[in-house]
Amino acid sequence: MKLPKFLYKHIDGREKALVKKDFREMWQNMAVRTMLVIVPLIFVVLLPIFFTILANSLPNSSLTGMQQMRGLISDKQSYMNNRQLLFYVYSDCLGPMLYLIVPLMTACVTAASSFVGEKERGTMATLFLSPITAREIFNAKLIGSVGISAVCSLISFVTYAIVMTIGDVLLGVTAFLTNPSWVVMVLLLSPALIIFGALFMVLVSGRSHSFMESVQICGYVLLPLILLFVGQFTGSFRLHAVHYLVLSLLLMVADFIIWRITSAHFTPEKLLQ
Amino acid sequence: MSAIITERLTKSFDSKTNTVDSLCLNVPEGIAYGLVGGSNSGKTTAVKLMAGLLVPDSGRSLIMDLDPVKTPARLHKLCGTVTPSANMYGGMTGKENLAFFGEAAGLKAEDAQVRAAELMKDLGIWQARDLLVREFPTGMLQRLSIARALMGKPRVLLLDEPTAGMDTEGAEAVLAVISGLVREEGVTVLLCTHQLVYAQQLCTQFGILVEGKLIADGSLETLCQTAGCRVRAGFRLAEGIQLPDFTQNADGYWEKELESDEEMPELLRKTVEAGYSVYEARLSYPTLTDAYTVLTDREELL
After folding, report:
1. Confidence class of residue A1 from pLDDT cuts 50, 70 and 90?
2. Is B205 helix (H, G, I), strand (E, B) or coil?
3. Whether the Cβ atoms of residue A181 and residue A240 lie closer than 8 Å to each other
4. pLDDT tens by residue, A87-121
5. Within 10 A of B216 (CB to CB), how many other CB atoms are there?
6. Nearest CA to A134 among B218, B89, B70?
7. Residues B145-182, buried b or exposed e (16+ Cβ, 10 A)?
8. Which chain A residues touch B106 with a CB distance below 8 Å?
9. How far apart are CA B143 and CA B122, in angstroms?
10. Which three-class secondary structure state does DSSP give residue A269?
């Protein structure tokens, strides 16, 4: 299977070979393959479809909890009936969180396979014995896992956009298409999260001994993301495009710092302990 | 020119004992050097230090004047390393593995394929080219690892127990290939092994490593002289006949140490003249195993 050209436009033949090999190994690994397919399928296809169906089948009569839910929307959306309200709240509060799980999880899983998996199989030492520097190995592996996660996230977004637009049409609202936060999320937050997830895996790869162990550690990275959106859902605060922008910039700064730390510590002695 | 130099190379993992302790080696270019020792003698650590997988606590090593800590990638272009901790990709075939490591060594994809095929044929594993590496038997896997180390046409080979787990036939085949590389292509080989017979078969210079320290080094002759091992004359006589000043070996031969093999004709003549019927006569030269046993006083290795 060939990778898109943009993934190895700026890398040399040796790094290209490494990226290709990593991609192949990831695809051969049932756990990675399943996660790359199942996670997006659940979070950007099945759950949105489920909520669309749920919203469509909701009675328009007064329901317990709907009044509290109305507290989550602005006056502009006060015209909405119960069905539209449920779909709008999902689209605005829960949907972004579920979508953002995709770049984070795929980055963690691919980086775990690439970095920890290599160590687990005892092939990291062999790579370090090749005429390729530790920095080149690090970069090639990072480019590979970030690239695959980016492709996966982009496909997920397009799929999600299609599903949610159908929902918008079916329920007669403009919940998804008019939300400017998505532009920031797709162009800035999602890439920053992908790099964060991949670098976090590199950071823990020195201590992790198996692919599955490192995937379990992914849970810790997901926790702040979940809390951020649970807070929104309970009405404690609301995130808008500008908040996502600030979050993205903060995450990029964190990415840069972690990148400096991890690349400096990516040495045979530290990795092969 | 020296191909491998180590200067007081030292490494400790627990800050109490040195796994490699002030190791000084000087291996000339184009020879096979056997670094022999038992378990936990520091052989693997020494190879890892020379290959740049570990950083020494003190001292340094140079391979073709390149420092593995400062310029590992340049060093690995000239030096292939086989160590038990360096595995191949189990989900890829043997040929795919070699082609990948060829590309990682900077070869073009087509050249890597050609080189992989060439090496697999030379090492007698061509028939297994399409077999997944996880299905390779131990002997073939070792040969594949050697092929991997040879992909970039190195001038130095660091081999850590390359014949471990192999049957005699497989080990002999691997040694023949390595021997050919030394003889025909002038490759310098550092063979780390506990299998003294194979080391003697391949190498011309040796170092004996005990608890990380090099206790003796030199040619087999030098080691034997240091250990006081001499050539032995052996005679097979009729059953029940005893030879004074000789000791009887387990195989029935009566043996005696000589200063040199030149004493043999005279000794044989005298024995016959003394009235003994000598059915067979032989000279047994001291082996690396003999010298090692004396020098280390460790027979458990053998």
Report:
1. very low
2. strand
3. yes
4. 888 887 788 888 999 999 999 999 999 998 888 88
5. 18
6. B70
7. bbbbbbbbebbbbbbbbbbeebeeebbebbbebbeebb
8. 13-14, 131
9. 10
10. helix
Order of strands across the sheet with B79-82?
A: B79-82, B156-160, B188-193, B32-36, B205-210, B213-218
Residue A24's Cβ-side half-sphere holds a number of Cα atoms within 13 Å equal to 16
User: Position of tokens 């050609």?
Assistant: B114
Q: How many CB pairs under 8 A join A and B?
A: 82
Q: Give the residue numbers in B contacting A (CB under 8 Å), as ranges.
A: 51-55, 72-74, 76-77, 80-81, 83, 85-92, 100-101, 103-106, 108-109, 148-149, 152
3-state SS of A43-103 is: HHHHHHHHHHHHHHCCCCCCCCCHHHHHCCCCHHHCCCCHHHHHHHHHHHHHHHHHHHHHH
Task: Decide if B73 and A17 are in contact by the 8 Å CB cutoff.
Answer: no
| Domain edges within chain B | 2-225, 231-285
Beta strands, E only, B146-294: 156-160, 188-193, 205-210, 213-218, 232-236, 247-248, 254-257, 280-284
Give per-residue pLDDT as tens, A43-66.
999 999 998 888 888 776 666 666
Residue from the list B55, B73, B103 with its beta carbon closest to the beta carbon of A269: B55
User: What CATH superfamily is the domain B2-225?
Assistant: P-loop containing nucleotide triphosphate hydrolases (3.40.50.300)
Q: Output the pTM of the full model.
A: 0.83
Exposure string (b/e) for B1-35, b if CB count within 10 Å is 16 or more?
Answer: eebbbbeebbbbeeeeebbbbebebebeeebbbbb
Taking the C-alpha atoms of residue A188 and residue A69, their distance in angstroms, rounded to an integer, is 29
Among B77, B83, B106, select the one facing A13 at the smallest CB separation: B106
Name the token pair of A54.
Answer: 């749920």
* Burial (CB count <10 Å: 0-12, 13-18, 19+), residue B144: buried
What are the tens digits of pLDDT across the range B66-121?
A: 999 999 999 999 999 999 889 999 999 999 999 999 999 889 999 999 999 999 99
The greatest distance separating any two alpha carbons of chain A, rounded to the nearest whole angstrom, comes to: 71
